[in-house]
Write a structure and sequence with these properties.
Elements (H helix, E strand, L loop, with lengths): L29 E7 L15 E3 L3 H8 L3 H12 L4 E8 L4 H15 L6 E4 L25 H6 L3 E7 L2 E7 L19 E7 L5 E5 L4 E5 L18 E3 L9 E2 L11 E5 L4 E5 L7 H8 L8 E7 L4 E2 L4 H4 L12 H15 L4 E5 L15 H8 L4 E2 L5 E3 L8 H4 L4 E2 L5 E2 L47 E4 L2 E6 L2 E6 L1 H9 L18 E2 L5 H9 L2 E2 L1 E4 L2 E4 L15 H18 L9 H20 L3 E9 L2 H6 L3 E8 L16
Parallel strand pairs: 1-3, 1-4, 4-16, 11-12, 16-21, 21-25
Antiparallel strand pairs: 2-3, 5-6, 6-15, 7-14, 8-9, 9-13, 10-14, 12-13, 17-18, 19-20, 22-23, 22-24, 26-27, 28-29
């Protein structure tokens, strides 16, 4: 801390109590996100600050957060080769998909401008179920109870930052093609009022240490409570004045004052801060009673519309229409985050998997040729005009990989067309769209942006999609998981040279599941899906592709890693010159520094060649600007070896 109030100087403060084993700060930094069974707090009981810097490995994460996708993804990336981590808890292990999306959204909003090298969200996939893919039909029960829909299927989202906190509204339209308002449209927002008296029988436990009393809310749209549909506005009557105002909190740890509550919308459990030190729940309830001597009554409301989730009343306050709700996808969300951060801080790469056979609803398991064939599926067919004419199936037919024309599932669910025109060439893809004012980022169904060459900005170059699944052993348990985290650890952990591609490199983490054939692996690689192949010499990575389309210069991960090294190196070289004068001497020194760095990359085989020009016009001098125009010749990887065989009589 500063000793003087006004004069500059260098001051010393020696901090005690932090002696520990730190990971190598020079190692690539991994940002791991996921859910956990425990919500850790600081020693004083306050919520843990994020991101959390891990210093002692997987055991530390397990002790602090418990089991869940956060710990699993961390352990899998570490097994792949990662050793420098920051982590972010995005929610509870039983959170539905929409809650996981919200947790990732908030983390990405706060972390996009922070340094990192790799990003891996755990437990979410390219093809996680989505209402826009017709998955609504699997879950929409006749009585309007959409419990499993809310848990298993992503809806359309609206979000806005209010007083520094992100708030969300969700819509699961019954007709995804027209998005027309109906009985399940966004016009119906009435609610049914419910009341429950806080007698001993309704209370689900009391913790005398934390002061929290629990209650599982009954009633709702159907005879039993419908998770996810309760309006987040609870109130107590017949209680002492301390409880006249009920305040909703984002986490349990934030419930510190009497009347604070946290609602777990997937179970209907509400935890209310009533004060600590009571002998039991009955004693706490007795203390809450007003002068009438009657136990307090908790009032809550449940919206009658099962297709909406609007806990903060955004639909009414923002006058939302159908067009304000946007399609979401975990892979697009990851790619947009990596792009946004790469523009302003440093280049980072995301790794995400796909659902396994069981996750896609197949009746079979890994090892069944029939079921693996259905899981891989086939790509969409193109007409003579280059547009999609027949939709594909399985993973190859995923709309982000092949495009899609409008259609209807045999089960009754409908789905709209998606990037199916000739200009997408049957590849679809992930493209940057205009930001929206409320979300402060791009939605995938927005208007596509273009770069200075007039090309759509392909976000796929920032992510790798892993198609294979493996069986791993962590924390005394064997389980199946996507190989995405382990692949990310292998590629970005620091052991793979910049000029070397992951293609055909040994993959040693876990036990590979399935017997997917080489022709099918080849088809997956053609659709920008990385996989693990079983060879006689061991398991290897099939092809080091990114999710960028074939028209992009950045469809190979090795190219992206070389560009990352060059750009991050130039940023490092330029850093000391920021704030200095733009004299000829300084500009020449910057030019020399950049040239020296790029020559070192060539000498070490990280790139083949380069050309650069440091542009500083007189007007740019006035504005304090300089532009580095850089062209790289990548160290192209060897892709195939063809052996021509001839016979001779002698």
């Amino acid at each position: 801390m500063a000793i003087f109030d006004n004069l500059p100087g260098v001051f010393l403060e020696m901090i005690d109590g932090n002696l520990t084993i730190f990971p190598d700060p020079a190692s690539p930094l991994f940002f791991i996100l996921g859910t956990s069974e425990k919500e850790p707090t600081n020693a004083d009981g306050s919520p843990l600050s994020y991101p959390y810097i891990v210093t002692q490995g997987a055991a530390e994460v397990l002790e602090l957060f418990g089991t869940g996708t956060l710990y699993n993804t961390f352990a899998e990336a570490q097994a792949g080769g990662a050793n420098n981590f920051i982590v972010w808890r995005t929610g509870n292990t039983d959170d539905p998909l929409y809650k996981q999306y919200e947790g990732l959204f908030k983390a990405y909003a706060y972390m996009y401008d922070q340094n990192m090298d790799s990003v891996i969200p755990g437990g979410v996939y390219l093809d996680s179920r989505n209402v826009m893919d017709g998955d609504l039909a699997f879950n929409y029960a006749p009585n309007g109870d959409a419990t499993s829909l809310k848990t298993d299927v992503l809806g359309r989202a609206y979000c806005k930052e209010v007083d520094g906190e992100w708030q969300f509204a969700w819509w699961w339209p019954e007709n995804t093609t027209t998005l027309a308002s109906s009985t399940n449209g966004i016009a119906q927002t009435s609610a049914t009022a419910n009341q429950v008296q806080l007698n001993n029988g309704e209370v689900d436990g009391y913790n005398s240490s934390t002061g929290l009393i629990g209650l599982v809310l009954p009633g709702g749209v159907s005879d039993s409570f419908t998770p996810g549909f309760i309006a987040n506005s609870l109130s107590l009557t017949g209680a002492t004045p301390e409880f006249s105002t009920m305040t909703s909190k984002a986490t349990v740890g934030n419930c510190t004052s009497e009347g604070d509550y946290w609602l777990h919308e997937t179970t209907g459990l509400v935890l209310i801060q009533v004060g600590s030190g009571f002998a039991d729940a009955a004693a706490a309830l007795d203390d809450m009673e007003d002068v009438s001597g009657t136990r307090p009554t908790l009032a809550f409301s449940v919206p009658n519309n099962p297709s909406l989730l609007d806990p903060n009343n955004l639909i009414a306050s923002e006058s939302l229409a159908a067009s304000d709700f946007h399609e979401v996808n975990f892979a697009y969300q990851l790619a947009e985050f990596c792009h946004r951060g790469s523009e302003v801080v440093d280049t980072r790469f995301g790794f995400i998997g796909v659902r396994d056979i069981a996750g896609t609803g197949s009746s079979g398991d890994w090892g069944s040729v029939l079921h693996e064939s259905k899981w891989v599926g086939k790509a969409a067919s193109l007409g003579t005009d280059g547009a999609v004419s027949v939709n594909g199936s399985g993973l190859l037919g995923n709309k982000f990989l092949s495009g899609r024309i409008q259609g209807t599932l045999t089960s009754g669910g409908d789905f709209p067309a998606f990037q199916n025109t000739a200009d997408f060439n049957g590849e679809s893809g992930f493209f940057l769209c205009d930001d929206t004012a409320s979300a402060q980022r791009a939605w995938l169904d927005g208007v596509a942006k273009t770069d200075s060459n007039g090309n759509k900005v392909d976000l796929g170059k920032y992510i790798s999609i892993m198609g294979s699944w493996i069986n791993v052993f962590n924390n005394g348990t064997s389980y199946n998981c996507s190989a995405a985290a382990a692949y990310g650890g292998m590629v970005m952990g620091g052991s793979l040279p910049i000029a070397s591609a992951p293609t055909n490199k040994a993959f040693t983490t876990g036990t590979l599941l399935g017997t997917v054939s080489t022709p099918k692996l080849d088809a997956l690689a053609g659709k920008r899906v990385v996989a693990v192949q079983r060879k006689a010499t061991g398991n290897v990575v099939t092809d080091g592709v990114t999710a960028a389309t074939s028209s992009s210069d950045y469809r190979r991960l090795s190219t992206m890693r070389q560009v990352e090294a060059a750009v991050d190196g130039i940023r490092t070289v330029g850093e000391p010159f920021l704030g200095e004068g733009m004299t000829g001497v300084h500009i020449a020194a910057l030019d020399t520094g950049i040239g020296d760095f790029l020559r070192t990359m060539v000498r070490e085989g990280q790139i083949n060649d380069y050309r650069f020009q440091l542009v500083v016009t007189p007007q740019m001098k006035i504005l304090g600007q300089a532009i580095v125009q850089l062209t790289l010749v990548p160290a192209f990887e060897l892709r195939s070896i063809t052996v021509s065989v001839g016979l001779s009589a002698t």
